[in-house]
Each structure stands twice: as structure tokens, then as C-alpha cells.
Amino acid sequence: MEGKDYFEIQNLLHSYPYRLDRGDFDAVGALFTHAVVYSGGSLLSDRSAATMAQAFRDWVIVHPDGTPRTRHYIANLIIEPDGTDGAIARSYVMVFQQTQSLPLQPVIGGDYLDTLRKVDGQWRIVERQMGNDLVGNLTDHGKHLGTIKPHRANR
After folding, report:
1. Which residues pair with 122 in a beta bridge?
2. Which stretches of the chain score pLDDT less than 50?
């Protein structure tokens, strides 16, 4: 891997929170076109942008401004080469939210374990393990709170 590969992977992974916080679930889904995605240890989507986008539509509460009223922060990103056209990325995620009824606060924290490959010369996520093990007040964030299973992606 070259230095530019690290930047491309970082930009790819960090584009996820921008798309999600705008409520652009189709754009979120597009990031996972090539990916098998697990949440809480269970299969969420298998290489389907439409399925991934629908999973977010089904779970995330969208407020009158058209957004989830969140800020997802990815931190402690570690990118490790995995062969010539592959990489493993580990990171933490913390989600803050503020709504008309909820003051600004962290609502959920977790981690991601991503497997990436170059596909047609571009870095793509080919597998994501999403874990959420710190759970706060999700009443203004998620529609089906019982689906959250505390889980770590990076063990």
C-alpha cells in the first residue's frame, strides 16, 4: 500500500457519517454496494445498496429537517495492509444527538471492523462488522430499540 491508499481509505470511511447525518440513506447504501454488513453479530445486508439503505430507513428516526439530528464521529482509525489490494480498518464511533425534546448528548457508542479491497482501482468496503456496546437515550434516534444487542466488532 502507498500513502495515497491510506488517504483514500480514510476518506471512504469518513464519508459514511456525513451521508448518514444528512439523512441520505441511498448514499449510505451506495458505500456498501460491495459489502456484507453485520450489526450486533447478525447479517444486515449482503452486497446490496438498496437493502442497506432500507435498513437505515426502517430504523432511524428522521426529524422535520429531514435528518436524524445526529453527528457520528469516527475515531482511533487504524488501517492495516492486507495484501497488495486489501486492508483492515478498525475504528470507534460515537453518536451525538440533539432534538427538540433531547438536549445534546451522546446516544450510542461502538466500533467498526472493516475489510476493504480495491475494486476496479477504487477502495471499497467488502465487509463491515458494526458493534454498539455503549447505549444511551435512543428514544429520538431509533424506531425499534429492542434490536440493539450490545456487541463489540473489534475483540
Report:
1. 119
2. none
As a whole number of Å, the CA-based R_g of the chain is 15
CB-CB neighbours of 149 under 10 Å: 13
- Which amino acid type is present at position 120? D
pLDDT by residue (tens digit) across 102-138? 999 999 999 999 999 999 999 999 999 999 999 999 9
Q: Cell for 123?
A: 477502495
Angle, vertex CA 108, rays to CA 102 and CA 29, nearest 5? 105
Would you state the pLDDT for residue 145? Answer: 75
Residue 151 confidence (pLDDT): 83
pTM (2 decimals)?
Answer: 0.93
Closest CA to 13 of 97, 107, 87, 95: 87
Grid coordinates representing 29 are 447504501
DSSP code per residue over 97-154:
E--SSS-SEEEEEEEEEEEEEEETTEEEEEEEEEEEEEE---TTTBS-GGG-----S-
3-147: in CATH 3.10.450.50: yes
112 with 130: CB under 8 angstroms? Answer: yes
- What residue segments make up the domains of the chain, in order of their start? 3-147
